[in-house]
Every structure is written in C-alpha cells, then in structure tokens.
Amino acid sequence: MKNLLWKILAAFTVPILAVVIVALAVPKATPPARAIELAPMSMMPDFVHAAHADAQHAYQFAAANPELVEQFPCYCGCVLMGHTSNLDCYLQDIQTDGTLLFDAHASGCGICVEITNDVARLWGDGAEIDVIHDYIVATYSSRGPST
Q1: Taking Cα atoms as reference points, which of 109, 77, 132, 98 lies closest to residue 90?
Q2: d(Cα 103, Cα 89) in Å, to the nearest integer?
Q3: pLDDT, tens digit (0-9, with 9 covering 90-100), for 93-106
Q4: Which of 59, 39, 43 is closest to 51 using CA atoms?
Q5: CB atoms < 10 A from the CB of 20, how many?
Q6: What is the chain's Cα-based Rg?
Q7: Which of residues 26 and 36 earns the better pLDDT score?
Q8: Strand (E) positions, 31-97?
Q9: Please, are residues 90 and 103 in contact by the beta-carbon 8 Å criterion?
Q10: Are the beta carbons of 63 and 90 closer than 8 angstroms?
Q11: What are the DSSP calls for 102-124, one per residue?
C-alpha cells in the first residue's frame, strides 16, 4: 500500500514540479519595446545645437512627441514661469501650420532634460503612460513644485 501511495504521489508531483521549474526559469514577460521618434537636429534652433547631448536628445524627443511629453509634469520650478507641463520647457507654441516655436528653457535646465529623457527611455522600453507618470512623480516630486 505504501508503494502505491508513493507511485501516485510521484505521478502527480513530478509534472507539477516540472511546470514550476519551467515557470521559474522562463524570463518574465516585458512590455514590447517601441521605436523612439526623434526630430532631426536640422530643425533645432541654434541654442539646441550649442547644448549638451542629453539636452539635444530631449529637445529632439519633445519636438517629435509633443502629445506624449505634454502628459508629464516638470519639477524644476518652471510652474512659476507659467509652464503647465514638461513640454512647455521645450516649446512655446505649435502653430496651426505645424511650425514649432522652441523655448530655450530646457537647454540650461537639467531637471527638465532628465524628466524628458526618462520619459523617452521608459516609453521606448514599452512602459504605459500611467507607469511612466508614477515614475516621474516618485523620482522628481521632491525637487520642486509641479507643473
């Protein structure tokens, strides 16, 4: 009788253990990566060309993805300048013909640039907007007032 119980137990335990081992060995699913759209440097104003590479990347990302960047706050204190989102650190306006009017603010502000480049990285990694927003708030909210 004891041998029969062990055989039954083994018959059920071995497949279950195999499934558990495979489940633990398989990497966790990650969100699919997205291509990062960047506006060409040729459309950037002179002050962007003179800025450091991280700022140039942030301007290119903001110019190519204004609807995305506009969804995130900035914590550099630019709310006191009337900014309402991180996008305002890069663009003064998007004219009806699509022409972008750039703002020089982010070319000299590391916090704006860090936020935008974090958005770009996380977006490229496949993160959803709410996850990116929570990350930006958690990472930067102690730096200053929010837009």
Answers
A1: 109
A2: 6
A3: 999 999 999 999 99
A4: 59
A5: 10
A6: 24
A7: 36
A8: 91-94
A9: yes
A10: yes
A11: E-SGGGG-HHHHHHHHHHHHHHH
97-103: list long-range contacts, CB under 8 Å, 24+ apart.
Answer: 100/43, 100/63, 100/66, 102/44, 102/45, 102/47, 102/48, 102/59, 102/63
Helix, strand, coil content of the chain in percent (nearest 5): 60, 5, 35
Tokens representing 58 are: 């942030």
Amino acid found at 134: D
Is residue 25 pLDDT above 80, yes or no?
A: no
Look up residue 118 and give its two tokens.
């974090």
Question: CA–CA distance from 94 to each of 65, 71, 85, 88, 91 (Å)?
Answer: 12, 16, 14, 11, 7
